[in-house]
Amino acid sequence: MTYGESDIIDTIERLARTDVAALTQEQLDGVDQFHVGGPEAVARLLPGLRLGPGARVLDVGSGLGGPARQVARATGCEVVGVDITAAYVEAARRLTAGAGLTEQVRFLHTPVAGLPLRGFDAAYTMHVQMNVQDKHTFYADIARRLRPGARLAVYEVCRNGDVHPPLPLPWSLDGGDSFLATGDELCRTIQDAGLAVVEWVDDSAWAAQWFADLGRRLSATPAPLALPALLADGPARMLNFAIAVTDGTLTVQRGTFTAA
Ligand SMILES: C[S@@+](CC[C@H](N)C(=O)[O-])C[C@H]1O[C@@H](n2cnc3c(N)ncnc32)[C@H](O)[C@@H]1O
Fold first, then answer.
1. Dist CA 182 CA 180 (whole Å)
2. Which protein residue's CA is at the shortest distance from atom 26 of ligand 1?
3. How far is the CA of 228 from the centre of ligand 1 (A)?
4. Are 165 and 241 in contact, with CB atoms under 8 Å apart?
C-alpha cells in the first residue's frame, strides 16, 4: 500500500538521533515536503495565492505538513490541512506541535468532500491528484470550499504522452493508485470544475534541476536527513521520479486558478 508508513516520527528521530522538536528547519525541510522542489516549490506558489493577513487557507492532501507550516510561517495565515492517510495526519500534528504552530495550523483526517468548513480565502494542493481517479469531483469539491474570488494553486505531476514511467513512484508502489493526466487534460478538468485559469506553467526544467541538485546534496558525507529514507522503497521511488522528469516522460505543472 502506498503511504503505508506508520512510524514516521520514530523513523525521523532514529535517523536524526534527536527529538523532532529539536530538529533544525533545514533538517525538517529534507523530510516533511513530499514533492519535487521542497520549500522552494512552496515559495513559487505563494505569490499566486495572494494571501493577506488573517486569511484562512486550505491545503488538500497535506501529507506530513511541511507546506502548511511553511505557508503559516511565511504569511501569518491560518492553515487547515486535510489528508486521507491517518498516519500522515498524526505525523503532521506531531511535527506542528514540535514547531510551536498548533494555534495556526491544524490537520484533519478526511477527504476534502468530508470537510464541513467553507469560505476559505485560498487553497493549494501539491502532488496529490496523481492518486485521484475522479479529478473533476476532486476539484469541484475544493471549489465549493472557496469564497468567490479566492485563489487555488496547484503543483502537480502529469504524463507527457502515452508512455508511463517505471514503478515504483513516490505516489504509487504498484500503479494501481496512479491516475496520470496530461497537463492539458488536467488544466481543462480544473476549469470544468468551476475554476478560471490565471496561470498554467510547465515547471519541469526547474524540477529536473532541483533533482540534480538534490542528488549532489544526498551524496555528501554524512548524508543529510532526506524523505526517501522514511518511505517504503523510497530511494527507488525518488530515482524513478527524477529520471522520468529529466527524460521528459513526466512533466511538473504549476497553476493558479480563481473560484467563480
Ligand atoms: C505525494 S504526497 C504530497 C503531500 C503534500 N502535499 C506535500 O507536498 O508535502 C500525497 C498526499 O496526498 C494524500 N492524498 C492522496 N489522495 C488524496 C485525496 N483524495 N484526498 C486527500 N489527500 C489525498 C496522500 O495521503 C498523501 O499524503
1. 7
2. 63
3. 16
4. yes
Sheet of 105-109, strands arranged across? 105-109, 78-83, 56-60, 120-126, 146-159, 250-259, 195-202
Give the 3-state secondary structure of residue 108: strand
Query: From residue 4, how far is each of 85, 88, 168, 231, 259 by CA, in Å?
Result: 8, 9, 14, 9, 34
Bond prior to 165 in cis (omega within 30° of 0): no
Asked if the model's pLDDT at residue 113 lies above 90, the reply is: yes
The structural domains of the chain, ordered by start, are 8-259 (3.40.50.150)
129 CA: nearest ligand 1 atom:
16
Quick check: helix, strand or coil at residue 64? Answer: coil
Alpha-carbon torsion, ordered 253, 231, 40, 259, to 10 deg:
50
**Interacting residues of 174 by C-beta distance below 8 A, sequence separation 6+:** 2, 167, 168
Q: Tens of pLDDT along 188-228?
A: 999 999 999 999 999 999 999 999 999 999 999 888 999 99
